[in-house]
Design the sequence.
């Protein structure tokens, strides 16, 4: 069976070869087919690169907005994308570097909030005695009236002036130490009229 099929294939090949030879030897009286137009290459070769830069920019901008607590709406994303399409390639690269830097800073800020929040400052030894006097060193201490809270008995307004967010007694002890150090640096022990003497 296999030999018969192979023989049929060979016979058809021989017929096709003889036909093509005859056609090649006969004079050509048919007009040549029109040349197919060459494939058009886009004039702007940077389109693909620009598209990638725009997608990267949008990705980072959405992450940044989410970290800032104000996610971009669909309308805002469309408007931003349309504006980015008007940028030149060099300007697009500069914009991407800027948004990448802002995203790094926002991530660092979130990391700091989770792990202490305040900038690294030296903690003066006198703060240990102030904390012992104010709350017996208890970072969850709350005054009887609820006005003063945490290890250093911050009021909500004082806590906010040194960059604290939320309840001082709910913050980590490290953050309370750092915020107290900032407060101490700006006004010394006078912020604690009784225990700062």
Sequence:
């Amino acid at each position: 069976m296999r030999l018969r099929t192979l023989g049929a294939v060979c016979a058809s090949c021989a017929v096709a070869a003889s036909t093509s030879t005859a056609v090649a030897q006969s004079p050509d009286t048919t007009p040549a087919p029109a040349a197919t137009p060459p494939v058009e290459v886009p004039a702007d070769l940077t389109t693909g690169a620009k598209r990638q830069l725009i997608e990267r920019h949008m990705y980072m901008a959405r992450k940044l907005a989410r970290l800032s607590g104000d996610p971009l709406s669909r309308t805002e994303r469309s408007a931003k994308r349309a504006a980015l399409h008007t940028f030149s390639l060099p300007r697009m690269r500069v914009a991407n570097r800027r948004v990448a830097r802002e995203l790094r800073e926002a991530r660092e800020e979130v990391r700091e909030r989770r792990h202490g929040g305040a900038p690294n400052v030296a903690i003066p030894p006198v703060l240990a005695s102030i904390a012992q006097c104010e709350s017996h060193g208890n970072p969850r201490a709350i005054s009887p009236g609820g006005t003063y809270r945490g290890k250093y008995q911050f009021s909500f307004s004082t806590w906010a002036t040194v960059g604290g967010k939320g309840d001082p007694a709910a913050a980590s002890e490290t953050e309370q130490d750092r915020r107290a150090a900032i407060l101490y640096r700006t006004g010394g022990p006078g912020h604690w009229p009784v225990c700062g003497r």
Summary: The helical segments are 2-25, 47-67, 74-85, 89-114, 126-135, 156-161, 173-187. The domain at 126-191 is CATH 1.10.530.10 (Lysozyme).
